[in-house]
Amino acid sequence: MSPPTDLDSLSAADLKALVISLLGEVTALxxxxxxxxxxxxxxxxxxxxxxxxxxxxxxxxxxKARSGGGKxxxxxxxxxxxxxxxxxLTAAVPAGSRFKGYEDYFIQDLVLxxxxxxxxxxRWVTPQGRTVVAPLPAGIDGHFGPALRRFxxxxxxxxxxxxxxxxxxLGAIGIAVSKRQVxxxxxxxxxxxxxxxxxxxxxxxxxxxxxxxxxxGARHKAKNGFCTQIGNDxxxxxxxxxxxxxxxxxxxxxxxxxxxxxSAEALAYMKSRALAGPVIRQLAADETKYFAxxxxxxxxxxxxxxxxxxxxxDPVLIATEGALWGSVKAHGLLTDTVIVSDDAGQFQVGxxxxxxxxxxxxxxxxxxxxxxxxxxxxxxxxxxxxxxxxLKAYRRDPTPARKAALRARFDRIFKRKTGFATLDRLLARLxxxxxxxxMVLDRPEIPLHTNGSENDIRSQVTRRKISxxxxxxxxxxxxxxxxxxxxxxxxxxxxxWDYLGDRLAVAGNATxxxxxxxxxxxx
Length: 523
What we know:
This protein has 523 residues and is of the alpha/beta class. Among the domains are: 135-194 and 471-520, no CATH class; 208-337, no CATH class; 356-448, no CATH class. Helices cover 50% and strands 8% of the residues. Helix 8 (264-272) runs antiparallel to helix 11 (315-330).
């Protein structure tokens, strides 16, 4: 309460009542200040940010194996993946001893030593005066052999060894090589690897029923950028760019194509993004529907005077996004593919599903201030965990009855009122994403989370931490290329070491099929 402006007009009883009231307010304020000081002191005492553990929803909702009863299985013998070389070891025995065969003892070892080869190439001069020089063996490309090139690529990209440490390691082994030469081994003449990585993306987007996506920060040429991951359980692909916009994501989904296409899919995309009707009709009525590159597309927008429009949403941006989406569809990519993301706006294109782990994390990380708030939060988390466990069961055995029951149950969970205003607003927001969170009911084959993408992109985060950023476009592209190829090999059950050996023509290496063919034609 506020005191009256004229205190002199108050009687003694009124003044006494006023003082008692104000003293009560002061006491309450002192209590609030004391609580805030205690909270500030507690927060100052923390070392680093507060520790918030992961929600554990995925692990807690896994089916538990029945304990007891079953016999514990042993690990079994580990097979040696290389040919075994037999060496006979003799023993000193006294005269008259009887030979009882052999006792086997296996070891694995590694032979790592430098080799310098001088190829003496015959030179001939033909009667016509033409000089003929004997060709180099297969795999020789430059003054470092294919086995050394494989070792450098595997150590840097799979082993996450930095260039200075790689130079020191090679020097310790006995290889005379400089830092500049190691960098050239990593980025020069790698066009065939880049082409294969590009084809991996095209094969994946053309055949995959679903992909998950994610991005993380990346430094390039001393500027902050973003590395985007696209993949599923059979392939992974990375690209580092300066933007994380929806326009950038659509450009990546073109998988290396540079054209722009106005098609029915493109016009439908523009309509869904609220592009003005006259602009859509103008683009649809024009006879030109295909544009080879960005300059041709920009010239088309200028000719139609679309670039001169100053309205919201930006007609140039939405039209360009639509033309990119038309290009994606024209090349047979993402025909019926569901894109599963963490609800970042740039990934919301085409058929889109949302990650349940990220959705529950919003509830998990919600700030609570009272016991009632915490109780409401924990109650909601338990309901979500239970629902998530039943979604996993539905994926294993989808039925129409289960599908209808889960839809109704979703509404009961996310439409409830808890009395905790912040939580209620969050529930309303999650309910608005019902179609995307329940995409799995229509497509049981898709995952409920983006854990695969987060695991894939962790290698990029590790590389960023130990090596910083890239300085050249070739270095950036090769880093993304080999990280994607290494992850793809792991998902296909192929040794990255054998893959590099086959592509670099290392003598005696096993043959590894072209990765896009494996992805496009699963066994």
